[in-house]
Amino acid sequence: PLCTSLPHLSLRQYQGFWFPDNWLPSIMTMQNHFKARPTDLILASYPKSGTTWLKALAFAVTTRTRYPLADHPLLSLNPHDCVLCVDELFADGHASKAEALPSPRLLATHTPYSVLPDSVTSAESECQIIYVCREAKDVAISGWHFGQNIPWLHVEEQHLLAENLKLFCQGLGPFGPIWDHILEYWRESQRRPNKVLFLKYEEMMEKPVENVKRLAEFVGCPFSEGEEREKVVEEIVQLCSLEKLKNLEVNKTGTLASTNIPNASFFRKGEVGDWRNHLDPEMARSVDEVCEQKLRGSGLTLGTIK
Ligand code: A3P
């Protein structure tokens, strides 16, 4: 089925999730033709959950012996141009772009776990996944602002926020329902902790160094004692911080290579709990109630604050 209730974007339902109608053909091709390699690292997220940040951090960590931090690609390239989205690589209908990338590949996806190809999810598959999860109200607000900032997703009228949130609570958003998206990756991270690392945006904000170390250990390149002494983790955290990236010329003025989205639209406030500036108590409750109900019994709670 097709949903055209959102003012800015039509969504199509496929295997229990809502996909942007214009992305779905590429995602379906990816599902059928993407051949994961054992050395692949895939960064997964629901949109507006910290994808850009995770891309920057994972890229900086995994390439740290290749690039000096003082002259780093992230200083002149947007993180989305450093880590390509596998969902988009199949837009021309075949796998050649993904196959042309040299190993080890660092890729990203918004595709739900259950929709990923077998070559990624099967018991034999050795590739790894890092998922970043963010509290749902902040995701909704971040998505709302993102829509306002890019020309082809215009949602500027304020009354539409309430409308948009109602749909969000019905699971209707790009790659929604958000709770199913999060739960699928969460369950897999519990079942196969060597396969899926589950990170929370709020915990990364609170303890960035610790979480970057977890990331490095998970991918098999922990920081050495020498690196610890030289404070390499701290430098990576600094390089990938919102303040640093947001103020780079490339991110102030550039646009993404794959679309015409302004790089600046990926960097806003990065605040935990920014929903408080936008949602009244009833709106907040509507998101909390549905998320609590859906996550009940899973052992997972969203965010670190109410
Ligand atoms: P806000 O809109 O709440 O500020 P995504 O990258 O998945 O599209 O998510 C975008 C959100 O992550 C935005 O949140 C953005 O400001 C925040 N963000 C982007 N880069 C970040 C960084 N380096 N550190 C922390 N947050 C970042």
Automatic annotation (TrEMBL):
Q: Which domain of life is it from?
A: Eukaryota
Q: What class of enzyme is it?
A: transferase
Keywords (alphabetical) are: Transferase
Q: One Pfam family name from the record? A: Sulfotransfer_1
Q: Does the keyword Lyase apply?
A: no
Domain Sulfotransferase as annotated: residue spans: 38-299
What's an example of a GO molecular-function annotation for this chain? sulfotransferase activity
Might you give the EC number(s) for this enzyme? Answer: 2.8.2.-
Q: Which family is this sequence assigned to? A: Belongs to the sulfotransferase 1 family.
Q: What is the official name of this protein in its record?
A: Sulfotransferase
Which taxonomic lineage is given here? Eukaryota, Viridiplantae, Streptophyta, Embryophyta, Tracheophyta
Gene name?
A: LOC108510734
